[in-house]
Amino acid sequence: MDNKEQDVSKKEKKEISKKVKGANTDKIVIASIVIFCIVFAFGIFGIYYYNSNLKPIARFDGGNLTISEYTVYYRMYAQYLSYAGYSEDEIPGEIAQQAALEKVLVTEAKNAGMTLSDEDKAEVDEMFADEDRVAQYKEMGFDITALKNVFYDNAIITAYIEKLQEDASDEEIINYIQTTYGEDANLTEYVTRHILFLTVDASSGVELSDDKKAEAKQKAEAVLARALNGEDFEELAKENSEDSTAADGGLYKMYLDGRTDDAYEAAVKELKVGEITAALVESSYGYHIIKLDAINENGRANSQTERSNYINKKIANITNEKNLEIDEKALQKAVETITGKTASANNTTSDNNATVE
Description:
It is built from twelve helices and seven strands. It is 59% helix and 11% strand.
């Protein structure tokens, strides 16, 4: 090969090398553009997903309520609140308060070591194994995973509240009663049993005809005679009483707190432990035969009603302590997305809630 041929060969190699390098550079540029587009697309999707699902509607110390979670609650409760008479402007705020409260409670429950029991989980899983039910949920617009998680959370909250009621001391309940109703509130529990013959319709509460009332009285007097003659009172109640206490042998624990019919209260006050009323006691419900089984001093601390009221107050205090705040702008946007309507900014939350910036 002469010198000219060698020079041409070198030039060709340089040109080929330039083309290869150029091609590689182009590939790198194209790859970089593709990667940038993918990252940018995922970034846009991430922002959209965050704003559509994960952006908080409410915040509290230790957690928040996301748009996705709020959407489940809105679809669950909006119609019920409408039926209950709440206005369209009030409903979003009411639901936000309830949903945020439940989020606070489930956070508190988990911090207290509460977990979803195998039994509760199985019950929820069984519900969502029903394909027809799940199909209905989807038609209603529910995110199935989010809805299922709400059911899980509700099971934990229920167990947590039950534990709070069980763990509340008698002293706490008595203090609550005296603080609520006054220092002179009657704390005595009267353990009674009764047999009721209704003089009103059980379903409607409408008073029965005179003939029906006379028939009820005649039956009651016959059973009263048997009770006074020494027959087992619990068995007589199970066989004859016309109210829900019949299954428990007529057991009715009462307190002098104004929640029991006046005629019933007055009759119980006159009884000694073990005694049965000598005559029928007529209340607004019908004719009663009453027996006093026991009188427990400070027994009102066992009242499930008082315990529930005490725990409800305690729960309300928890939300205040956790600095719960609703983001009104995020709430309004969420409602607009859910309903397709422009929501009013007024009355979406209570006046006590500050907007989260």
